[in-house]
Amino acid sequence: MKRKVLIASGCSCTNELFSSDHHHDMDCTWPKWPELLAEKLDMDFINLGHSGAGNEYIYSSILHQIAEINLDDIGLVIPAWTQAQRKDIKVRGTWRHLDAVRNYPYQKHIVQHGDINYRVEQSLLFYYSLQEICKSKKIPLYQFQMLPMFLGFDWDPVLKKHTSGDQEESKRILQSFYSNPYYDQIDDTFLGWPTENYLGGFNIKMDVLYGYDEKGLPYQISEIDTHPNAIGQIKIAEYIYEKINE
To answer: How many CB atoms neighbour CB 81 within 10 A?
Structure first.
Protein backbone atom coordinates (compact mmCIF):
# COMPACT_ATOMS: atom_id res chain seq x y z
CA MET A 1 0.00 0.00 0.00
CA LYS A 2 1.25 3.49 -0.86
CA ARG A 3 2.62 5.35 2.14
CA LYS A 4 1.20 8.72 3.09
CA VAL A 5 3.36 11.83 3.17
CA LEU A 6 4.46 14.01 6.07
CA ILE A 7 4.78 17.67 4.99
CA ALA A 8 7.09 19.75 7.21
CA SER A 9 8.45 23.27 7.01
CA GLY A 10 10.59 25.47 9.20
CA CYS A 11 13.82 27.44 9.42
CA SER A 12 17.47 26.31 9.59
CA CYS A 13 16.70 23.85 12.40
CA THR A 14 14.55 21.98 9.87
CA ASN A 15 16.45 22.62 6.63
CA GLU A 16 17.56 19.36 5.01
CA LEU A 17 20.47 21.21 3.35
CA PHE A 18 21.63 23.03 6.48
CA SER A 19 25.30 24.07 6.67
CA SER A 20 26.98 25.69 9.66
CA ASP A 21 28.04 29.33 9.37
CA HIS A 22 30.52 28.75 12.19
CA HIS A 23 32.03 25.42 11.16
CA HIS A 24 32.46 25.59 7.38
CA ASP A 25 34.13 22.18 7.04
CA MET A 26 31.54 20.32 9.10
CA ASP A 27 29.44 17.67 7.35
CA CYS A 28 25.88 18.51 8.41
CA THR A 29 24.10 15.98 6.19
CA TRP A 30 22.71 14.04 9.14
CA PRO A 31 18.97 13.24 8.94
CA LYS A 32 16.75 16.09 10.07
CA TRP A 33 13.70 15.71 12.28
CA PRO A 34 11.05 15.52 9.46
CA GLU A 35 12.80 12.47 7.98
CA LEU A 36 13.27 10.86 11.39
CA LEU A 37 9.68 11.53 12.44
CA ALA A 38 8.36 10.22 9.11
CA GLU A 39 10.26 6.97 9.69
CA LYS A 40 8.60 6.57 13.08
CA LEU A 41 5.18 7.22 11.52
CA ASP A 42 5.84 4.94 8.53
CA MET A 43 5.42 7.83 6.11
CA ASP A 44 7.32 9.41 3.26
CA PHE A 45 8.24 13.05 3.81
CA ILE A 46 8.55 16.42 2.10
CA ASN A 47 10.91 18.79 3.93
CA LEU A 48 10.32 22.44 2.98
CA GLY A 49 12.62 23.89 5.66
CA HIS A 50 14.80 26.83 4.60
CA SER A 51 17.58 28.56 6.53
CA GLY A 52 16.64 32.06 7.68
CA ALA A 53 12.96 31.47 6.99
CA GLY A 54 10.28 33.38 8.84
CA ASN A 55 6.73 32.35 9.60
CA GLU A 56 5.33 33.78 6.37
CA TYR A 57 7.53 31.43 4.35
CA ILE A 58 6.68 28.45 6.57
CA TYR A 59 2.95 29.11 6.21
CA SER A 60 3.09 29.80 2.46
CA SER A 61 5.34 26.85 1.62
CA ILE A 62 2.97 24.42 3.36
CA LEU A 63 -0.13 25.87 1.71
CA HIS A 64 1.52 25.67 -1.71
CA GLN A 65 2.46 22.05 -1.12
CA ILE A 66 -1.07 21.19 0.02
CA ALA A 67 -2.39 22.70 -3.21
CA GLU A 68 0.07 20.63 -5.27
CA ILE A 69 -0.60 17.20 -3.77
CA ASN A 70 -3.56 14.84 -3.61
CA LEU A 71 -5.14 15.43 -0.21
CA ASP A 72 -5.63 11.69 0.29
CA ASP A 73 -1.85 11.27 0.16
CA ILE A 74 -1.19 13.62 3.10
CA GLY A 75 -0.60 11.78 6.35
CA LEU A 76 0.45 14.77 8.46
CA VAL A 77 1.26 18.47 8.15
CA ILE A 78 3.65 19.82 10.77
CA PRO A 79 5.20 23.31 10.77
CA ALA A 80 8.08 24.18 13.09
CA TRP A 81 7.42 27.89 13.63
CA THR A 82 10.23 30.37 14.14
CA GLN A 83 10.74 33.94 15.44
CA ALA A 84 7.94 36.40 14.74
CA GLN A 85 10.35 39.22 13.88
CA ARG A 86 11.75 37.42 10.82
CA LYS A 87 10.62 38.79 7.47
CA ASP A 88 10.14 36.99 4.15
CA ILE A 89 9.49 38.42 0.70
CA LYS A 90 9.32 36.91 -2.77
CA VAL A 91 11.36 38.34 -5.66
CA ARG A 92 10.92 36.93 -9.18
CA GLY A 93 9.46 33.74 -7.75
CA THR A 94 12.25 33.20 -5.20
CA TRP A 95 11.82 33.57 -1.45
CA ARG A 96 14.19 36.00 0.26
CA HIS A 97 14.65 36.04 4.02
CA LEU A 98 15.65 39.58 4.91
CA ASP A 99 18.76 39.72 7.08
CA ALA A 100 18.03 43.40 7.75
CA VAL A 101 14.97 42.37 9.73
CA ARG A 102 15.76 38.97 11.15
CA ASN A 103 19.16 40.13 12.43
CA TYR A 104 19.41 42.60 15.30
CA PRO A 105 18.74 45.30 16.33
CA TYR A 106 15.17 44.80 15.25
CA GLN A 107 13.93 48.31 16.13
CA LYS A 108 15.76 49.89 13.19
CA HIS A 109 13.30 48.24 10.82
CA ILE A 110 9.97 48.89 12.54
CA VAL A 111 8.85 51.56 10.08
CA GLN A 112 9.42 49.34 7.05
CA HIS A 113 8.16 46.04 8.45
CA GLY A 114 5.97 46.71 11.47
CA ASP A 115 6.69 46.64 15.19
CA ILE A 116 7.08 43.46 17.22
CA ASN A 117 3.44 43.51 18.31
CA TYR A 118 2.39 43.42 14.67
CA ARG A 119 4.85 40.62 13.88
CA VAL A 120 3.46 38.52 16.75
CA GLU A 121 -0.09 39.27 15.61
CA GLN A 122 0.78 38.14 12.08
CA SER A 123 2.31 34.89 13.36
CA LEU A 124 -0.81 34.11 15.37
CA LEU A 125 -2.84 34.68 12.22
CA PHE A 126 -0.67 32.12 10.39
CA TYR A 127 -1.03 29.58 13.22
CA TYR A 128 -4.81 29.87 13.40
CA SER A 129 -5.30 30.07 9.65
CA LEU A 130 -3.30 26.90 8.97
CA GLN A 131 -5.18 25.13 11.75
CA GLU A 132 -8.56 26.00 10.25
CA ILE A 133 -7.52 25.26 6.65
CA CYS A 134 -6.28 21.81 7.59
CA LYS A 135 -9.41 21.21 9.65
CA SER A 136 -11.68 22.18 6.74
CA LYS A 137 -9.78 19.85 4.37
CA LYS A 138 -9.59 17.06 6.95
CA ILE A 139 -5.79 17.10 6.86
CA PRO A 140 -4.03 15.80 10.01
CA LEU A 141 -2.07 18.65 11.60
CA TYR A 142 0.28 19.22 14.50
CA GLN A 143 2.14 22.49 15.05
CA PHE A 144 4.98 23.46 17.37
CA GLN A 145 7.29 26.37 18.05
CA MET A 146 10.90 25.57 17.15
CA LEU A 147 12.41 28.89 18.32
CA PRO A 148 11.04 31.30 20.92
CA MET A 149 8.38 33.42 19.23
CA PHE A 150 9.67 36.85 20.29
CA LEU A 151 12.46 36.36 22.83
CA GLY A 152 15.53 38.42 21.96
CA PHE A 153 13.93 40.74 19.39
CA ASP A 154 15.50 43.78 21.09
CA TRP A 155 19.06 42.44 21.36
CA ASP A 156 21.72 44.79 19.98
CA PRO A 157 24.93 42.89 19.08
CA VAL A 158 27.04 46.07 19.10
CA LEU A 159 25.90 47.25 22.53
CA LYS A 160 25.63 43.64 23.73
CA LYS A 161 22.43 44.30 25.60
CA HIS A 162 18.67 44.40 25.21
CA THR A 163 17.77 47.88 24.03
CA SER A 164 14.28 48.12 25.51
CA GLY A 165 15.95 48.99 28.81
CA ASP A 166 13.21 47.59 31.05
CA GLN A 167 10.32 45.16 31.11
CA GLU A 168 7.70 47.51 29.68
CA GLU A 169 8.12 46.36 26.08
CA SER A 170 7.84 42.71 27.10
CA LYS A 171 4.68 43.53 29.04
CA ARG A 172 3.18 45.22 25.99
CA ILE A 173 4.01 42.21 23.82
CA LEU A 174 2.41 39.82 26.29
CA GLN A 175 -0.67 42.02 26.62
CA SER A 176 -1.00 42.02 22.84
CA PHE A 177 -0.40 38.26 22.78
CA TYR A 178 -3.10 37.45 25.33
CA SER A 179 -5.64 39.89 23.90
CA ASN A 180 -5.26 38.61 20.33
CA PRO A 181 -8.57 37.12 19.08
CA TYR A 182 -6.77 34.00 17.84
CA TYR A 183 -5.04 33.25 21.13
CA ASP A 184 -7.93 31.25 22.62
CA GLN A 185 -8.78 29.68 19.27
CA ILE A 186 -5.54 27.69 18.97
CA ASP A 187 -6.45 24.09 19.77
CA ASP A 188 -4.48 21.20 21.28
CA THR A 189 -2.98 20.19 17.93
CA PHE A 190 -0.49 22.98 18.66
CA LEU A 191 2.01 21.14 20.83
CA GLY A 192 3.32 23.29 23.66
CA TRP A 193 0.89 26.17 23.21
CA PRO A 194 1.38 29.00 24.20
CA THR A 195 5.00 28.39 23.10
CA GLU A 196 6.99 29.66 26.11
CA ASN A 197 7.81 27.86 29.33
CA TYR A 198 7.03 30.88 31.51
CA LEU A 199 3.59 31.05 29.87
CA GLY A 200 2.91 27.38 30.57
CA GLY A 201 3.96 26.04 27.16
CA PHE A 202 7.20 25.06 25.49
CA ASN A 203 9.35 25.61 22.44
CA ILE A 204 11.94 23.16 21.18
CA LYS A 205 14.95 25.48 21.29
CA MET A 206 14.72 26.50 24.93
CA ASP A 207 12.90 23.59 26.55
CA VAL A 208 14.09 20.50 24.67
CA LEU A 209 17.53 21.26 23.21
CA TYR A 210 18.82 23.86 25.66
CA GLY A 211 19.40 23.70 29.37
CA TYR A 212 20.90 20.24 29.73
CA ASP A 213 24.12 21.92 30.73
CA GLU A 214 25.29 25.52 30.88
CA LYS A 215 26.49 25.45 27.26
CA GLY A 216 23.31 23.99 25.78
CA LEU A 217 25.01 20.71 24.94
CA PRO A 218 24.86 17.83 23.99
CA TYR A 219 22.05 18.45 21.51
CA GLN A 220 23.55 21.48 19.77
CA ILE A 221 26.45 21.65 17.32
CA SER A 222 28.77 23.65 19.58
CA GLU A 223 28.93 26.51 22.05
CA ILE A 224 28.87 29.02 19.18
CA ASP A 225 26.51 27.18 16.81
CA THR A 226 23.34 26.35 18.69
CA HIS A 227 21.58 24.57 15.83
CA PRO A 228 20.63 20.97 16.60
CA ASN A 229 23.31 18.42 15.82
CA ALA A 230 22.66 14.81 14.77
CA ILE A 231 21.48 13.69 18.21
CA GLY A 232 19.58 16.97 18.61
CA GLN A 233 17.58 16.15 15.49
CA ILE A 234 16.87 12.69 16.90
CA LYS A 235 15.78 14.31 20.16
CA ILE A 236 13.35 16.62 18.33
CA ALA A 237 11.81 13.73 16.38
CA GLU A 238 11.46 11.57 19.49
CA TYR A 239 9.99 14.41 21.52
CA ILE A 240 7.38 15.31 18.89
CA TYR A 241 6.54 11.65 18.34
CA GLU A 242 5.91 11.20 22.07
CA LYS A 243 3.73 14.31 22.20
CA ILE A 244 1.69 13.17 19.21
CA ASN A 245 1.07 9.82 20.88
CA GLU A 246 0.14 11.17 24.32
So the answer is: 27
With a CB cutoff of 8 Å and minimum separation 6, the contacts of 40 are 237, 238, 241
User: Alpha carbon 236 to chain centroid distance?
Assistant: 12
Q: Which amino acid would we find at residue 222?
A: S
Full-model pTM: 0.92
Q: Which residues contact 69 (CB under 8 A, 6 or more apart)?
A: 5, 7
Contact in structure between 55 and 122 (CB atoms under 8 Å): yes
- The one-character DSSP state at 141 is B
H or E element in which residue 19 lies: none
Tell me the average pLDDT across 215-230.
86
Q: Which domains does the chain have, with CATH numbers?
A: 5-245 (3.40.50.1110)
Encode pLDDT of 114-173 as tens digits: 888 899 999 999 999 999 999 999 999 999 999 999 877 766 655 556 665 556 677 788
94-97 and 88-91 beta bridge pairing: antiparallel
